[in-house]
Write a structure and sequence with these properties.
This is p-hydroxybenzoate 3-monooxygenase. It comes from Pseudonocardia ammonioxydans. InterPro entries: FAD-bd, FAD/NAD-bd_sf, RIFMO-like. By secondary structure, the protein is an alpha/beta fold. The protein folds into two domains: 5-68 and 113-186 and 279-352, 3-Layer(bba) Sandwich (FAD/NAD(P)-binding domain), CATH 3.50.50; 79-107 and 191-278 and 366-400, D-Amino Acid Oxidase, Chain A, domain 2. The protein has helices spanning 18-29, 42-47, 56-64, 69-74, 100-104, 113-127, 178-182, 246-257, 308-329, 333-360, 372-387, 389-400, and strands at residues 5-8, 11-14, 34-37, 53-54, 76-78, 80-86, 93-99, 108-110, 132-133, 137-142, 150-154, 160-164, 167-170, 185-201, 209-212, 219-225, 228-235, 268-269, 274-284, 287-288, 291-293, 299-300. The strands form four sheets. Strands 6, 7, 14, 15, 16, 17, 18, 19 and 22 form a nine-stranded mixed β-sheet that branches. Strands 9-3-2-13-21-20 form a six-stranded mixed β-sheet. The longest helix is centred in the last third of the chain and has 28 residues, at 333-360. It is globular. It binds adenosine-5-diphosphoribose (APR) and P-hydroxybenzoic acid. Residues 51-53, 209, 220, 222, 230, 303-304, 306 line the site of P-hydroxybenzoic acid (PHB).
Length: 407
């Protein structure tokens, strides 16, 4: 057997999603070396379509890190969203705008997650010439309870490597391996539905997102650009995406999004429809020794609150500050506080995402008798949210994103 090739860096990062790449960027800005190891190819991670809402604090951070040039040119600033629902079951739906600018003085930016990933990869690899190792396999994390952890892996060319480092960041997403090394306690909730998502070559007809509560189930109207619409339908959890014809998807979207004065433009689907399960999950603690979990590796939110990428980025901000403090002052207190600091924001986002999910989806489809009490509560919450300034402000400040460090 040939010997492993040995290398060294300060921070070994597993995963080149938003968490791993933003961490690498923040560390580089602070003069700290890192190596990013990614299981997939660059083309694959750049093409993966996911959510597309950036909180105000996320945009601020990307600007401070100097990676928001294209985001500022092409991102779509939004100052509100609409909640769409009927006053009475089966009645005509109406839009109720939640005006973020008026309520909390800030907004969100619609910009696809894969665009953020493309910008971060271009900044790191093409502009700064720093390393991201794609298509690695067999990643294993060692000795995290010592001050000399390491990561072993097989590179794309088949050679075996050991990367020695001071700190390991487990940014390898929900299906990654880092979480099992931390062996945290897991709490979770699985929802009895999924989302079928489509991306369509169709001009959005309103420039804001619409969250629609309908007797048939939830629908979401979003967009990616002035030419591309992103749409979602609540479906049973075990739905095969291929079992819905294009005609059926459009028909159901037209039904669930119908509202006076609103037109849903149809168009060619730009990728195969996909179904995402809906779950909430929190792993704690998010640290074991010198291994720190960040992003989807540590927590999952249902997409209704659009928090996934934002939380991942909030985590690595805390981690980057802790790592900087360690190298600057030899002070490990940032490491000690990491998990508790992150988990405060994580639980706020978990609550908000659960709240939005509970208020907007149909929960009774699996029971013949339905759940009239649950539906009554949902209608009451929707009405309260759109008629009380206090309730609308609460939704707005959570949606737009509480300032980092505020929770
Ligand atoms: N070795 C190396 N890389 C791995 C491994 C492994 N064993 N397992 C997973 N990865 C990679 C994945 O291929 C992926 O590119 O880790 C990366 C994790 O990225 P994300 O799943 O995007 O997770 P994260 O960076 O935490 O971002 C969270 O992404 O999941 C979406 O919508 C979610 O917005 C949320 C955000
Ligand atoms: C999206 O545009 O993909 C999107 C927007 C808002 C959400 C979820 C997804 O809550």
């Amino acid at each position: 057997m040939t010997a492993r090739q040995e290398s060294r860096t300060q921070v070994g990062i597993v995963g080149a999603g938003p968490a791993g790449l933003v961490l690498a960027t923040l560390l580089a800005r602070a003069g700290i070396d890192s190596v990013v190891l990614e299981a997939r190819s660059r083309a694959y991670v750049q093409a993966r379509v996911r959510a597309g809402v950036l909180e105000a604090p996320t945009v601020d951070l990307l600007r401070e890190a100097g990676v928001a040039g294209r985001l500022d040119r092409e991102g779509m600033p939004h100052t509100g969203i609409s909640l769409r629902f009927a006053e009475t079951p089966g009645g005509p739906a109406e839009d109720h705008r939640i005006d973020f600018a008026d309520l909390v003085g800030r907004g969100i930016t619609v910009y696809g997650q894969q665009e953020v990933v493309k910008d971060l990869l271009a900044d790191r690899i093409d502009d700064a010439g720093l390393p991201v190792e794609f298509e690695v396999s067999g990643v294993e994390i060692h000795d995290v309870t010592t001050d000399a952890p390491s990561i072993t892996y097989t590179a794309a060319d088949g050679t075996a490597h050991r990367l020695r480092c001071d700190v390991v960041a487990g940014c390898d997403g929900f299906h990654g391996t880092a979480r099992s090394v931390v062996a945290p306690e897991i709490v979770e909730r699985v929802y009895p539905f999924g989302w079928l998502g489509v991306l369509a070559q169709a001009a959005p007809t309103t420039d804001e997102l619409v969250y629609s509560h309908h007797d048939n189930g939830f629908a979401l109207y979003s967009m990616r650009s002035p030419e591309v619409t992103r749409l979602y339908l609540q479906v049973p959890p075990d739905t095969e995406a291929g079992s819905w014809s294009e005609a059926r998807i459009w028909d159901e979207l037209q039904t669930r999004l119908a509202c006076d004065g609103f037109t849903l433009n149809e168009g060619e689907l730009l990728e195969k429809p996909s179904v995402t399960g809906m779950r909430s999950m929190v792993a704690s603690p998010m640290r074991h020794g010198r291994l720190f979990l960040a992003g989807d590796a540590a927590h999952i939110v249902p997409p209704t609150g659009a928090k996934g990428m934002n939380l991942a980025i909030a985590d690595v901000r805390v981690l980057a500050e802790a790592v900087e403090r360690f190298y600057r002052d030899g002070d490990e207190r940032g490491f000690d506080d990491y998990s508790a600091t992150c988990l405060r924001r994580v639980w706020r986002a978990e609550h908000f995402s659960w709240f939005m999910t509970s208020m907007l989806h149909r929960f009774d489809s699996s029971t013949e008798a339905g759940d009239p009490f649950g539906v009554g509560l949902q209608r009451s919450q929707l009405r309260y949210t759109v008629t009380s300034r206090a309730a609308a402000t609460s939704l707005a400040e959570n949606y737009v994103g509480l300032p980092h460090g505020a929770v």
